[in-house]
């Protein structure tokens, strides 16, 4: 029913430890202190876009989007398929999907699926056209291997 002094001091110690843990995660300065250099918010560095788009890819996306007037950008994702595990998917997007990462580069908006983001960080998107075919290509530094046809990759 009643706590002994030992249990009470354990409770106080636990409270002090927990209180300290919570205080380390807060950014607010206490009300009775002045701001110092360590508590003044610093400007954030610019975050690099998860993918980069070449000029050829941007021109082709603009050509494709001019044919589909209701689209505002392209959705980029990955799907488990192919002989090597993952394959890129692209589709028109009539609005920015919720939680998707937006890359606005060279006048083109690409919305990256949050599930695909960790697989495509650092990727360069390009468009190649030759006598036999024309296709979007992805130079992904995270890919450990690709299949022979280049359709799928593995990370």
Structure overview:
With 155 residues, this protein is α+β, with helices and mostly antiparallel strands. It has a domain at 51-154: Hypothetical Protein Aq_1857, Chain: A, CATH 2.60.300. Helices cover 24% and strands 30% of the residues. The protein has helices at 5-24, 55-67, 117-120; strands spanning 51-53, 73-80, 86-93, 101-105, 108-112, 123-129, 134-139, 145-146, 152-154. The strands form 2 sheets. The protein has a 6-stranded mixed β-sheet. The chain has a 3-stranded mixed β-sheet with strand order 1-6-7. It comes from Acrasis kona. Belongs to the HesB/IscA family. Pfam families: Fe-S_biosyn.
Query: What is the general shape?
Result: globular
CATH architecture of the domain at 51-154: Sandwich
Computed over alpha carbons, the radius of gyration is: 25 Å
Helix share, percent: 10-25%
CATH superfamily of the domain at 51-154: HesB-like domain
The main β sheet shows up as: 6 strands, mixed
Q: By helix and strand content, what is the structural category? A: alpha+beta
CATH topology of the domain at 51-154: Hypothetical Protein Aq_1857, Chain: A
SS field, number of helical segments: 3
Q: What is the string of SSEs from the N terminus onward?
A: HEHEEEEHEEEE
Q: Which consecutive residue ranges, at least 5 long each, have pLDDT under 50?
A: 20-27
Count of strand segments: 9
What is the CA-CA span between the terminal residues?
A: 59 Å
CATH class assignment of the domain at 51-154:
Mainly Beta
Please, what is the average pLDDT?
Answer: 79
Strand content: 25-35%
Strand order of the largest sheet: 4-5-2-3-9-8
